[in-house]
């Protein structure tokens, strides 16, 4: 078993508190993604699991064993970094087998493990090349292969795709998802890219300022965010967030003062709220509407997004069911079903 447990884990650098008390369960063979903005503590948390940063307080368990004071090499973990960190004078074969050779493994075992990793990663034809003869994606696969040959209980990935171009990132996401299915092991993956998180994870852990804002499956976080931060962070394009005030018959939006929007939840009159609606929830058959003026149109081939404004300053993002007849400056009735709205209180927490 290679599940992990973190219990009130904290990390401080002097008087600076980076991780402020994390409790988390990661199941065996689960693909878990830590996601959040720069500086939220996701890489620090990963390095604490790896043993590269000391835990200031709290407990880390891998399986049933407390790991706080266990040497990184004895934790059954392999880590893939943002930089490939390959030895330029060594071949792919030598790079992948280096850690095993350093540990004194027999040559036959090293050759077998390297060959198996090369098969999984489709690197067989590249084993005798050096890193300078490889593309960025190939180098990243070699770095992953170097981790695979160690047969770890847990794989840690620290933003492994951030140095790749957009097309190669998409390809490598697919490769990493396939790798997880083939290896059938626990993976913890750090990224600031919520699209990577949504497409790869069994479980997403959203971090901000050293605390977990919410953890759950990608669609649970997308459909049912607990607070404004998660609602605004998860989803591309982002959720539309509009300030308003509750009244007896609904919610009066600041940017659409002439319209009273039906509320999906009971909110006391006079309460300041924020209303969220995702771009794809605008529907021509909806029972409610916002009167807008289209300012920008994005035709993406298979879909069309309109950016429209009401009387205020907020620019709405509208998915238009690939409406190619829209024009800038045109009046547009953005219809929606009130049940699709999310309502948040002044403290940012979801009102249910």
Short description:
By secondary structure, this protein is of the alpha+beta class. Helix content is 24%, strand content 33%. It has helices at residues 42-50, 92-102, 107-121, 136-148, 166-183, 194-200, 218-223, 228-233; strands spanning 4-13, 16-26, 31-35, 57-62, 65-66, 77-80, 154-158, 186-191, 203-208, 211-216, 240-247, 250-253, 260-261, 272-277, 288-299, 304-309, 315-319, 331-336, 342-344, 350-351.
Describe this structure in words.
- It is a single chain.
- The chain is α+β, with helices and mostly antiparallel strands and 352 residues long.
- It contains eight helices and 20 strands.
- The protein has helices spanning 42-50, 92-102, 107-121, 136-148, 166-183, 194-200, 218-223, 228-233; strands spanning 4-13, 16-26, 31-35, 57-62, 65-66, 77-80, 154-158, 186-191, 203-208, 211-216, 240-247, 250-253, 260-261, 272-277, 288-299, 304-309, 315-319, 331-336, 342-344, 350-351.
- The strands form four sheets. A six-stranded mixed β-sheet has the order 6-7-8-3-9-10, sandwiched between helices.
- Strand 19 and strand 20 form a beta hairpin.
- Helix 2 (92-102) packs across helix 3 (107-121) and helix 2 (92-102) packs parallel to helix 4.
- The chain is elongated and about 75 Å long.
- It starts with a strand and ends with a strand.
- The mean pLDDT is 93.
């Amino acid at each position: 078993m290679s599940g992990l447990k973190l219990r009130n884990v904290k990390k401080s650098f002097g008087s600076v508190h980076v991780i402020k008390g994390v409790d988390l369960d990661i199941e065996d063979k689960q693909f878990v993604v830590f996601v959040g903005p720069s500086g939220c503590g996701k890489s620090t948390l990963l390095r604490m699991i790896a043993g590269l940063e000391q835990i200031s307080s709290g407990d880390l368990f891998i399986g049933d064993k407390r790991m706080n004071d266990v040497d990184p090499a004895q934790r059954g973990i392999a880590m893939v970094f943002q930089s490939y960190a390959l030895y330029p004078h060594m071949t792919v074969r030598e790079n992948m087998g280096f850690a095993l050779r350093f540990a004194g493994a027999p040559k036959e075992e090293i050759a077998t493990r390297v060959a198996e990793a090369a098969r999984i990663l489709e690197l067989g034809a590249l084993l005798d090349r050096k890193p300078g003869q490889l593309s960025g994606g190939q180098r990243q696969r070699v770095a992953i292969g170097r981790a695979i040959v160690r047969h770890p209980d847990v794989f840690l990935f620290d933003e492994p795709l951030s140095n790749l171009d957009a097309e190669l990132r998409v390809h490598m996401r697919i490769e990493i998802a396939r790798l997880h299915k083939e290896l059938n092991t626990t993976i913890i993956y750090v990224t600031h890219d919520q699209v990577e998180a949504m497409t790869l994870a069994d479980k997403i852990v959203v971090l901000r300022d050293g605390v977990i804002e919410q953890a759950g499956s990608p669609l649970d976080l997308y459909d049912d965010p607990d607070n404004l931060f998660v609602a605004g962070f998860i989803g591309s394009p982002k959720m539309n967030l509009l300030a308003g005030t509750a009244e007896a018959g609904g919610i009066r939006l600041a940017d659409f003062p002439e319209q009273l929007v039906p509320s999906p939840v009971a909110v006391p009159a006079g309460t300041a709220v924020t209303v969220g609606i995702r771009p794809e929830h605008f529907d021509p058959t909806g029972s409610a509407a916002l009167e807008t003026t289209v300012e920008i149109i994005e035709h993406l081939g298979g879909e069309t997004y309109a950016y429209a404004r009401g009387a205020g300053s907020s620019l709405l993002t509208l998915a238009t069911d690939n409406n190619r007849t829209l024009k800038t400056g045109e009046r547009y009735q953005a219809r929606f079903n009130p049940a699709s709205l999310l309502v948040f209180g002044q403290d940012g927490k979801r009102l249910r």
